[in-house]
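ARCHIVE CARD
SHELF: 3
SLOT: left
DATA:
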Amino acid sequence: MLVTITLKRRQELHVELKETILRAERVLLHRLGFDFNVEHPYKHLLSVIKRMSQAGLIEEESTKTLAQVSWNFANDRYEKSARDIITFLTNAQVYEHHYALSIVQTI
């Protein structure tokens, strides 16, 4: 019985810690000016390609290929943006650590 209570409390603490971390990340991203309302381009890409195909600007056989290539470009851009944010946050942590050490050393 004691093990079950301990395990249950551990799970509760884990959930609390996870929620605390997620809130802190959200606050940090908000302070950095991160835009949480992102409009993804996929629907627009497919709409434009469909209209181009209907207007005869691209051959019907090329429609699927163009859609796939466009989709891949959009994915690559979003992946790069995410990597840039992670790199920035990592570098900011390193900078803050070195800054804190330099302050401590001057005291």
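SLOT: right
DATA:
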Amino acid sequence: MPRTPRKQQWTDEACYHVMNRGHNRERIFGDDDDRRQFLRLLARYQERFGLRLHHYCLMTNHFHVLVQLERPADLSKWLAGMLRAYVHYFTTSIGAIASWAISGRVVSRARPSNARDTS
């Protein structure tokens, strides 16, 4: 059975797990400077798109982020813009980067019934 199209899953409450890795599992972060640059871009695009960042994990050849957007329809625009900016930085500093594999899915659309309010 095919998955439900992402467009049909967009809600204000949805959290999205986005994963991206280098082509053939090539590295996308050469060192800590690359990771810091990625986090700076993430912060810039976080403000631009009203993104709420819940978690992130940066590995040598891929990353994971768990995000929520004010406008879920902007998920692709946010990711494309941020990745273009990072690829530009990376190719300038390293010399080349291969294509990227992108994956994303809805993690939750509503607050679980057993969740407690911690505020």
